[in-house]
Amino acid sequence: MVRKIRNFIGNQYVEPKGEGKYEVFNPAFGEVIATVAESTREEVDNAIDLAEDAFLKWSETPVPDRIKILFKLQNLLYEHMDEIAEITTNEHGKTFEESKGDLTRAIQNVESAAAATYHSMGVNNKNIASGIDEELIKFPLGVFAIISPFNFPSMIPFWFMPYAIALGNTVVIKPSERTPMTMEYIMDLIAKAGVPKNVVQLVNGGRETVDFILENKKIVGISFVGSTPVAKYVYNKGTSNGKRVQAGASAKNFIVVMPDADIDGTIKNITGSFFGNAGERCLAGSVLVTFKENHDEVVNKFLKEAKGLKVGYGMEKGVDMGPLIRKEHLMRVVSYIESGESQGAKLLLDGRKTKVDKYPGGFFLGPTIFDDVSIDMKIAKEEIFGPVASIVKAENFDHAIEMVNSSQYGNASSIYTRSGYYAREYVRRVQAGNIGINIGVAAPIAFYPFAGMKNSFYGEIHPQGGFEHVDFFTDRKVVIGKWYI
User: Fold this and answer.
1) What tens digit of pLDDT does each residue of 366-413 get?
2) Which of 225, 282, 337, 441 is catalytic?
3) Which of 208, 287, 351, 422 could bond 366 through an S-S bridge, CB–CB 3.0 to 4.6 Å?
């Protein structure tokens, strides 16, 4: 049964006024399971007004009381993990275990946000001058907006929301119109945890809703994750309207396998980097860098591992990789495969041949591997956001780093090696914000920032992380005092 996704305003679900404009699919079945209406400007403004009204009282709520609510939310998320993970699998396509991992990362950010309040303490100096004291205090700012992508519908909103409210702000969340059901469900748990009325609001929609948020003068800051073109748009429009903006963007992540690497011990990890979450993640491996000495061994073992992955419906046991999010996205990824063929890359594994007989309408694409790729090919330069691996051959270590740094993006990169020298040099010289050493998905734990460089990030303060988020979600006052009585 197809239903309309609801907003969550005033601690209750609210039917949107508009007609269903966007379709939510179960991508394994290829069937529409819900629709999303574009929120009107009136609905968005109302949610923001209510959040602003709630800000004063919430900002004055003692920090220990805010932390207690976060701990209650943490427990509720754990208790409902299976239900939430099933929703995520059915609207996104990722496997059930991947969906549980998505939520686990969200929960870790709730825990980290509670601890982040320790970094909100100010500093002071007595007698900075004769009879004069000086102190720095941090204070919340108001209403923040969170605009999140489709690929991690629970984790990415939680990169921001728990930190914002732990520090005394209020929040309006706009989830992806492709995967809105996860946060729709979680909003009820936020209310049950004791988050006061209007402190966290949820509005649904697409670009128009985003514009209403960006144009509202009561929004003081924007936290965004998405593609580079949209990140640029959000950053430019948000900052031109006087807002703080942190905007995570696209990626093209290189994985370098040195000749001294332990191939047998790490090949599963390497393969998982490329094909986990069907390649729909900004930390996914995309370009595999090999050398003359190890090229054939790496390629043969990588190919064998990829062929062994089972593609199917993520709720079924034994499935390693689910479908892509939409048919149009599937066609976009297929166009990259066609581009690789036309530009002369050698297609070793063609994911277009993968069929899941039980689900003929699903948006499935199997692991795809190209060899003999040159760095100037389209498949080696542009973000594909799907299960397509491009293998390039470096002449030496310096050449490998040169290829990595040639990318316009700088989200993540990993090196596999037994050498401390190569590892240290890689960290020092590679232009990427998240670096893995013998780890294919360089995902920071919640209390570290999610770094990014070049066209992978816009702003000054990165998402996630304790002290960095304190800086984003608070401002500072310096108080200089002299007492005469």
Assistant:
1) 999 999 999 999 999 999 999 999 999 999 999 999 999 999 999 999
2) 282
3) 351
